[in-house]
Amino acid sequence: MRYIEQTVKYLKNKGFENPEVGIILGTGLGKLLNEVNIIAEVSYNHIPNFPTATVEFHKGHLIFGELADKKVVIMQGRFHLYEGYTLQDVTFPVRIMHRLGIKKLLVSNASGAINPNFKKGELMMIDDHINLQGGSPLAFKGVSQYGERFVDMSEPYNKQICDKIEKIAEEKNIKLHKGVYASVVGPQLETRAEYRMLKIIGADAVGMSTVPEVIVANHLNLPVAAVSVLTDECNPDHLKPVDIKEIIAMAEKAEPDMIVLFKELIKAVEV
């Protein structure tokens, strides 16, 4: 709790005042910032108690500004278990954004399509998830000081926000799938056998993030929604080696649709 107070105080002194919506930007999804009137920006390295982004294509800045007439705080770059952080480290920024005042959280990521009907370059709204990261961000002593220990996860992704996303996609003629996201540790990509297993257990897409952040959002009673950019197709019968540069390029290709979705959603969402 002391760490949270210290970090929040630092950010408020830097001008992070009363944000309404929090946004976590995933791999290759930084151009949303071109739509933001930036008021304050701080490097993760300078924020007390914050982890540091170690992935070269994750920028590592916390940004405060205005988007669609709402105050937003944006994570440009997130943290992952595969960087050597704990699940508490990975989700610390969600707790900070909540304490700063956000009323809604929007999450984006890049993921691999397991469902054969989903193609790379398309978007998938996450309707549910499977946690395969081998732990929980709520499994620590004193968690009940922050909220209910046994958090209900029957509807982890807020239905009202998800309905709005689907409506916007329809109005703007954006192809949007809906599906189940499986979160693994990484950083290695999956084997053919692992892709087959993921399909059998009901995953439509797979990635290495998002689920811990969503669990903590639910712990804080913070309405959350998430959209994946599908960057590669994970067909175990026709599996080709994946180049991370190709994944980032595919995320950038799909990014304009993601920007339209998030911008229109922020305009429409009530805070």
From TrEMBL:
State the UniProt keywords alphabetically.
Glycosyltransferase, Transferase
Gene Ontology terms, MF aspect: purine-nucleoside phosphorylase activity
Any one biological process term the GO annotation gives: nucleoside metabolic process
**Which ranges carry the Nucleoside phosphorylase domain?**
21-267
Q: In which pathway does it act?
A: Purine metabolism; purine nucleoside salvage
Q: If you read the UniProt record, what top EC class would you report for this enzyme, in one word?
A: transferase
Protein name per the record: Purine nucleoside phosphorylase
Organism from which the protein derives: Mesonia phycicola
